[in-house]
Amino acid sequence: MCGIVGIVQKQETKIGKAIIEALTKLEYRGYDSVGIASIYDNKVIITKDQGKISEVSERIDVNSIKGKIAIGHTRWATHGPPSKENAHPHVDCSGDISVIHNGIIENFQRLKEELLEQGHVFQSETDTEIIPHMIEQQVKKEGLALKEAIIQVVKRLEGTFAICVVSNLNPDRIYCAKRDSPLVIGINTDRMFCASDIPAFLNKTRKVVLLHDDEFVTLTSEGYDIINFNTLEKVIRKPHIVSWKPEMAQKAGFPHFMLKEIHEQPHSLADYVRIKQPSLTRIAEKIYNAEKIFLLAAGTAHYSTLTGEHLIRRFAKKSSSSIIASEFESVNSLIDEDTIILPVSQSGETMDTIMAIKSAKEQGASILSAVNVIGSTITRHSDEVLYLYAGPEIGVAATKTYTAQTIAMWDIGLELGKLSGEINNSEYSEARKLYQQIPNIVKQTIVRNEARANHVASWFAKKNSSFYLGRGLNLQTANEGALKMKEIAYIHSESYPAGESKHGPIALVEEDYPVVFITPQDYTHNRIIGNIMEMKARGAAATVVIEEGDREIEELSKWKFEIPQGYSEMFSTIPYVIPLQLLAYYTAVRRNLSPDMPRNLSKSVTVL
Ligand code: GLU
Hints:
The chain is an alpha/beta fold. Helices cover 37% and strands 24% of the residues. It is built from 19 helices and 25 strands.
């Protein structure tokens, strides 16, 4: 995920300033490096550096970037850490063709090998850089015109992309193409824009054209021309006028980033599932052969490591321990060269986790991490990394990164199962098929439960205290649901293994006391019915997360959320947490709280 923008205009101006202004509106999409390609004096001029927009624009002389045409990029690294070399735009060998890209080119390795054989020289580790070199190959070796060359190239790309190309070969236009990454056009009388998202130009124009997949656009200061790049047929699409306020537009029409991020989960999970990471097999093998394994995390990530611990036990038949990073000292004396440390973190900057890793490394342990932010401190201290590919998360309460961390644990778990023989080849393939379905199930779960969550929230918002109960793996769902409610709605929420709740917590239950039960149709089902009965006998009001059609439990409940049939029991923790994210969100909203910025909390905890 990143922000891209392009401007082509009739008059020559200080275009660098306009690009930076537009990129600033897209910084929520990525912020590890910034770059601009402009055309001046018939030359492509690249200005780029690592850092946030505010830092980079202090270092470079933005006002000196003049011209009628420029493209700009704010990056969220997926291939290669944040650095000046990896910052976009990328250029071909001659420097005539420059490209910015949002997305992931899945077949880049194969295409890069081809280009290396043809003598192209690369300057970055990104997947993106193959694009200008491929275009160069088509123009300079095959003799195609620039537009035809780009069309030939995008047809060969697999994965997701929104790209913009500027070149001194056709200095008055921007060429764009997209598949599965967003791209919109903004129309003004004397200038045209293209961008990842509408906020980039909303203060300049409200006249917008949304592009569809497999479309190719030629953008000049006079207008736009769209074709389908497969059929080459012309596409007629009239602009429409957007009425969003700029702040709303940044959140894609959602009132808060948290809700936007909840809704992004089908996409973030699909990205995770789609991208094959070579580190996965190495990580699974190392865990399988290790003597001691400690998973390490803080906050929400801790619940994903508890899932990891369970899966290592189940699939590798090994014991492992999930340690809260700030408590790492208690196991420090056990760490040696035969130890694997598996830290899980969104930011890769959590101070407690970093300190624990450093100390473990000094004692010879191997560090295999699962992290969202590429190039972050934890990834730099790791021997192997599994990236979460969830994109930037702005809301302080983790949502899409939790489901990404959990699916990553399953990814490792399934590989361990195959290695240990705990699941045979056909069971493994079957499990992988069901695993592919997770994004779709999550999508249906959101649709089915959102309005209900808003409704239940009007009741929940009046409560001061609640319990979240689950069994087996879904104890983690209860833990995460309770944490969300605490974090953003400020309602005291305690999670407990359902079977244990009678050993203490039940003493607090009184008439209409909220107890949330996570009740999938698995081996925990019958026992949890007993736990619901115990609580109800004391007056508790049960909110249940059930599989669609589970009348037995539905009849015991005051409120229900339903997970659509067809999900795999195996991966239930991912869809089952979704209604709890929505419930916490709407409860916070009903209490007039700001879910994106809960009091006393910060996104990345970089103090001990
Ligand atoms: N895959 C590209 C990179 O790592 C683009 C990432 C993005 O969308 O920001 O540079």
